[in-house]
Amino acid sequence: MVIRKINKELLDKKPYEAWNAFIDLIAMEEYKDLNQTQRTAHLCFWYDTEVQNGGHLQYFENKGIEKMDETIDALKVIGAAKQANILNQASATYSSKNRKKLNDIFAFVNEARCGEFEEYDNEYYNSEPTVTDLLGEYFEIYSVN
Q: Which residues neighbour 107 within 8 Å (Cβ) at sequence distance 6 or greater?
């Protein structure tokens, strides 16, 4: 893991740099290289990012279901119980049938147009507070002042 250091003078001038470093850490580091607190944030970040950019189908295609239980637990840890419930339901739907990997954008678009995950996507998009908001609170709790 790359050690990230932030200059105190920079933080005094631009306090948002701490958040940027946090996002860089949880987005760019390998899961295996993170501690448990960081892993929780990592799983929540990637779930939110994938669903926001392409729905639950994109999340499952890109991230798989190997860490599903951990991700659901991570969402609960940060206070995203609604989103954890949505993911639990969506993953049950995804796991309910054999699936082939969607190897190109056309296959993905065709599958997405079927709308199998649309209900879960819309419920997720309407959930408050958002995972991003809750990650911000999580960051505040665990950041070093």
A: none
Phi, psi dihedral angles at 13 (to 5 degrees): -80, -35
Q: What is the pLDDT of residues 15-68, one digit of tens each?
A: 888 889 899 999 999 999 999 999 999 999 999 999 999 999 999 999 999 999
State the residue for tokens 């995972």. 131
pTM: 0.90
- DSSP secondary-structure letter at 33? G
Q: Which residue has the higher pLDDT, 20 or 82?
A: 82
How far is the C-alpha of 92 from the C-alpha of 15, rounded, in Å?
41
Spell out the residues 6+ positions from residue 64 whose beta carbon is closer than 8 angstroms to its own.
Answer: none
Other Cβ atoms closer than 10 A to 98: 5
Closest CA to 72 of 87, 59, 60, 62: 87
In the numeric block, which tokens belong to residue 145?
């002042």
